Amino acid sequence: MHRTFITTVVAVVFMIIPFVLQADECQLMMMVSNGSDGFIPDDTETNILEEFREDAAGSDEDDGWGLLNIPTGDSYSANGYVWIPQFPDPLGYRRWGGYEQANNPNSHYIEAAAAIVAHKNKIIIGHLRAADSGSGGSVIPDPHPFLYETSKSTIAFAQHGSPGETVTGLMIGTVEDLISRNGWNDSQLEDLIYQDIDSGVYFGYLIAYMKLNDFDILRGLHQAMNSSSFGGNWNKNFVMTDGFDGYAYRETGSTDQDHNLYFGRTLGSQPTYVVKTVMPGGTMIDIKELVYFSNHAYPIHFKGFSGTTGGRVGYVKYLEPVSSSTNYWCWESFPVMNPGESSINTMTQSGPNTSGDGFGSAIRVNSVDPLEYMAIRSGVWEIHNLGNFDQTLGYKILCSDDSDFTGEVKGTIVSGDATVTLYPGQDNWIGYWLLNSQSLRDAMGNDFSSVAMVEAETFCYKAPSGRGLGSTPTIDIAGLPVEFGKMYNIILKEGITSPITFSWTNSRMPYQFGTIPQPTFFTYENAPEYEVIDVASVENGDDIKEIGVFAEDTCIGASVVESFPVQILVYTDDYENTEIEFQYYTGDRAPILSGDAVAVWDENKGGFSAGKLVAGDIGYKTVTLGGKPQPISPTVDSFELQVSPNPFNPETTISLSLPADGELEVSVFNIRGQKVNTIARGQYAQGEHKLVWDGKDANNRSISSGVYFLRVTTAGQSVTRKLLLLK
């Protein structure tokens, strides 16, 4: 999936515009690799770091600079550090800095940048400092980024602005009270608040609330930023990382451009999210908006994050069809909302359908009652018989057109350690409420061994049987991601008879982000329920790009083939008791029938055996498909076929000679494998026949110009011809 509406795409090489915005205050920068393998060596890091240095030219950021890079893996070589002697890194982490303006040839910034890009990094943050607090000059004790080490990670922080003496006094008093009431013995926290750099105090204040929430960063930040100690009209912008992901917040007390904060996404060999104070062409972060950037997911936006009434946050919710279905069911949850209420509070819609009726509907947990649904009308959700919503449960929402939906849900943030009950012998629709994505296996923690199946919107995991598939390769579905705000259906193993109190585990294990590619040749309509086919292999199928599953000449599911095995979700509700067939797309030919060579895995026998697949009776099947996927061409004894004219407009004649009496079917398909019209079907006598196609579909509507495929089937043989309609 690709959320084009989330970020502004910026060039890999950030261009230095002749007009340079001169900021009179500190400047911030953060890069987050959109992949856990880190930044792929190219010019992206170098260009952004160089642009950041150029941002300091002629400005007031002359009180030093600091950079911090977080490499992939667990080890890091300290060779090449350029910290000047008076400027040691007390925790031994990857901070780099100097007292001079970054653009000064004597600043060591260029050497630091070169040393940083020599490593494979996943996050880099930077700060150009204009000191309003601290002694300044050559005795700055510890410029940004500030660091705080937890048992799981190190949190790094850089701020753009100055709280001032009154606010820092309130923050120090609040932290002292928290230390006293909770009996904390925390020298790191005390070092942060008892220093003469107000940004360090600001960081210490945020750390105290994160600590209070067991380093649930989202809830800790929210509590800190809605306390009376956080009030006042001052510039609160910051970038922060916990070593895994990035956070950016913007709240300015002034109307000038010195305290703007932008973000964008590069299009290099490794996509990278970039946050900067100065970014021509970037997307401005809203006032009081917190944006979460992950190396394994898309950004998550929280509006009105501080100073909210009753602690309510605006969570930007996206309903995004991942296929080209006209109607698409999204599997969603609402980790930000007011729990226990009968509606999704003030969920407003932005986009072309704001005033339209009947945007969509939803069915709630375990419900198939058609009278239970929700719809959006005039930008407001209406709830019908759904009962109270729950932050931990899941919902399937029908998007009634193929466009993306963007809305804002206002409410409180569910606790990261929230629990939900999983009941045996039934479906359990639950939401994923942890901010960071991770693999299904890691997210379920110790309860993973109790799971028989997990259904997701785009994949399905089934626990292996005792026999397994022997030497047949299997798909590591459990390694696929679970995502904030999505819904998952968990089914427990048959031997489990008691309910399980379940909470998602935050493993913080490295995870390789990736999306499941969607087919472009075959198209289909999804539905609330699906069956699953795992195609373990196709004989001589190296050139297959997509596999489509068909029932009654209609595509009911398809997948891109990058390698085998491949999983296909098939939507069979309207085709029960219909035998299905497979079609292949190889990139430069018409769709190809697979033939009848289907072998189905038999769990009782522990092997594959010849069989067939019938819609409604598939459940979850693993198959192999035999026979080389080649177009079935006429043999010496087969029928003769000619199409003329071709190209044609508006009609063409199909001439064929049948060698014997028999069943004949002549059909036309579009380039996506969808049947356009059936020209002939029935018993035909031996001999010559002429059929005319008038360029219309099954509803007698004229079709548009383009490439189509004629398929003629008789006597167990099939011939395909390309047609070109030109108007």
* Extended strand count: 46
Strand-residue proportion: 25-35%
Largest sheet: 10 strands, antiparallel
Quickly give the structural class. mainly beta
> How would you sum up the global shape?
elongated
Mean pLDDT: 76
Helical fraction = 10-25%
Which ranges are low-confidence, i.e. pLDDT below 50, for 5 or more consecutive residues?
A: 1-24, 74-93, 132-141, 342-373, 375-380, 628-637
Q: Please report the number of helical segments.
A: 7
Distance between the termini: 35 Å
Radius of gyration: 30 Å
Descriptive report:
With 727 residues, this protein is mainly beta. The protein has 7 helices and 46 strands. Strands 5, 6, 7, 8, 12, 13, 14, 16, 17 and 22 form a 10-stranded antiparallel β-sheet that branches. It has a 7-stranded antiparallel β-sheet with strand order 3-2-4-1-10-9-11, with helices on one face. A hairpin with a 4-residue loop joins strand 26 (451-455) and strand 27. Helix 1 runs antiparallel to helix 2. The two termini are 35 Å apart. Residues 1-24, 74-93, 132-141, 342-373, 375-380 and 628-637 have low confidence and may be disordered.
